[in-house]
Amino acid sequence: MxxxxxxxMTFAQTKKIRGIVTDENNNPLSGVSVKIQExxxxxxxxxxxxxxxxxxxxxxxxxxxxGYADTIIKPTGNTLLxxxxxxxxxxxxxxxxxxxxxxxxxxxxxTSAITHVDxxxxxIGANNDPLMGLQGKVAGLTIQNxxxxxxxxxxxxxxxxxxxxGAGTTPLYIIDxxxxxxxxxxxxxxxSVDVLxxxxxxxxxxxxxxxxxVLITTKSGTLxxxxxxxxxxxxxxxxxxxQVLSKADYLAKIPNAVDFGSNTDWLKAVTRQPSFGQxxxxxxSGGSAKDNFFxxxxxxxxxxxxxxxxxQQYGGRxxxxxxxGNGFFNVKxxxxxxxxxxxxxxxxxxxxxxxxxxxxxxxxxGGYAFFNGAFAYNNPVEAAKVILNKQQIKExxxxxxVTLNILKxxxxxxxxxxxxxxxxxxxxxxxxxxxxxxxxxxxxxxxxSQKQENTTQKTLEWVGNYSLNIHKHSFKALAGYSYYNNNxxxxxxxxxGMPFDAFQWNNLGSGLYNQELGVTGMGSTQKSNxxxxxxxxxxxxxxxxxxxxxxLRHEGSTRFGTxxxxxxxxxxxxxxxxxxxxxxxxxxxxxxxxKFRADYGVTGNQDFDDYTSLQTYGGYGYYPxxxxxxxxxGPSQNxxxxxxxxxxxxxxxxxxxxxxxxxxxGSLNYYTRKNxxxxxKVSVPIPPNAQSNTEVNLGTMVNSGIEISINAALVRSKNxxxxxxxxxxxxxxxxxxxxxxxxxxVPYLNGPGMPAPGSPGYLQRDSENVRIGxxxxxxxxxxxxxxxxxxxxxxxxxxxxxxxxxxxKRNVGNGLPKFMxxxxxxxxxxxxxxxxxxxxxxxxxxxxxxxxxxxxxxQQNGAANLxxxxxxxxxxxxxxxxxxxxxxxxxxxxxPGDFVKIDNVSLGYTKRxxxxxxxxxSIRVYATARNLHTFTKYTGxxxxxxxxxxxxxxxxxxxxYYPAALQLLFxxxxxx
Length: 976
Known about the structure:
By secondary structure, this protein is mostly beta strands. Helix content is 6%, strand content 50%. A hairpin with a 5-residue loop joins strand 2 and strand 3 (42-44).
């Protein structure tokens, strides 16, 4: 009996609970959280819905999954469970953990404007930047990549409009709690992304929070062993291309055209049609409740639409988690290396637009042809294939965290992290380049360069958490210390006239550069900055109906002036869960959830150069002295001991709702943000100053808008479902002041300066109390009988454009969209899934730069080619035939920028296998098309390729053209 009893006890201590989790239609659910109630132990279901839990206590098991109601089951001796989760399309009633900075909260407890996006909801595509998968998913977040088919291009992110005149406008990126390299993430490794939009949410990050904060959570280990392999191949096809005159049309329509005897389609010659890329990802995870790991390795190889651009990269990420036997401490370790080798774009598309189509690519000897033109100098095909411009990039993100669970409701965590970014840039122009040979009469020198850049970020944070529950009162308190150091080093060297082209950049010392001065072409620099902060936060709720959050960050930065090293960043937010009030119960059958929110927070922006507040010294040239050359040094920048952070005062009100049995849910936000102490250079007298301008805190900007997000389960049946999502936002920016008590600035900013030919001048003007993005040009009055542009002068009279002056210019349109929106549709039928995403921008103008420089007959000079629209009788540009009014900026070239884009279409099929099939757990095949079609009246290409961020939205700054692309991707994903 004793032996039997001991055997029984041993079995009870080591037994395993196994089970499968499905939805109401008996479809297995992958990634369901299975936790022992009131314990940190737990696991997740695999791709077939199966789970295994070791050493369970007698407590109940809690099953949680996004979009489904929580289910609690207490095992009753049965070690094989069948669990069915009931659909509940209400992201607020289920347990959805939202990262809020230094912690997480259940979504229903959040009191500020935060958008949570799960990895499964991100767009599929071969993205240069992993956050491109967020496009259209977050109301108020603008994500643009004007060269998406260039593998070395990066996206521009702007949250709730531009917030600065002279400092950075990019959000702060936090990866697993530590600032990291955003391009060192494989999208397949992301679990979720949380975007802190409200000032109360981002104020906890102090001087780095004014542009918003993007928190990225990557995958960690699971209790069940799992392996996944994902491979995809993709092709980019140029679309929405500009069309230039063919040889026949060029010779027929341009009177002074010179025929060089060839017939060259230069745009086709400099374009890969299509470009190709591939990506492979292999992931492993496994372990136990105490020790688990996640590892991923990936390889990618992609070409650009241009002849030169390529990117080959290798990356990995390892996450390890260990919990002590008694649960007293926990250790987490993350390490992520990445190596990339690139060839960067040679800019051949701009040259291809203007080149005479009768010019040859190759001369009679088979070598590259040489020519000179109004816009282009190098043969773009030769430049793309002969000139070398490479980058070697090495990245390493490392962080470790140790948590001590001192009491059940008290813990402390110490996190250390370091990110390294090393980039070597190598450039070489051979002596055989035709322009080098011809320009230098056959004695041209080759040119080589090397540049080494290293950025190291070090982070140390110590955070303590305490919680207390007294009846219906709940308190969560946090206190912490943060240290951050960023160090940048650079070394560059260049030379020319190396004896052999074979040396390339590998023997710079053999060149002839500046030997007459006894110096070589080299330089180096180093700079650093440090942040130190103390912060705290208290979260209170009463009965899960009334929520209050307050935080304060006290932070100092070495970037600030001597008299303004430290600042305070307070925040407070509150929420009221109205739907849980007794007077709401049973009173409405259509309103199921309603929560009001309001938040106020002060944020900062210290994203400017490290030594802006200090007097710096620089070289003033070389001077002969006693037979040798000496370099002179002197002040290169004025000191400003009062320089401080840009200050953002944020206010947000919003509501979250659930309707029609929670089949429809969403949120609505109204925000306003006042950015004060904006950085700007003002003119100062010499003396007493060493330089004629000083960087000061001067301007004020006001920003406001409305954001709406709606999710709806339109159809739910046994085999078919249809979910719809909508995001929309408005935004308005105004610079309200250019002065303060110490300095007075000009009442407007001019920009951007449009390049030659001609002297077009500035295109836009941001004035006090006028919406940012105003085009400030002459007002067109049409074209006269001679083909000359007519405009209105200041008195309202019609005059020739070449007779107008700057005083006749006025605001003629705005390049900032009044409304931006996206619409997502997700369909599921048995094992098939289909998603269709639309995106658009409305209520703004675009200045057609290409039409201005190349799109009218007035620009014909016999040297440069023109767009076909210049001679299209349906185009108003064909009427401008008089060269006297060429290169004059007016609203004649403004076009509606409004567009609706079929942004992403993805179709997939998933086959799950039973446990009896030992090869695979599941196989998924999928196909994706990005940028399928754009509906627009804009004639200058893809309007989405024209930036709508920053101070000068709605224009490109010249004919630096890169075609938009339609991308087709095919992939296979296998779970083992």
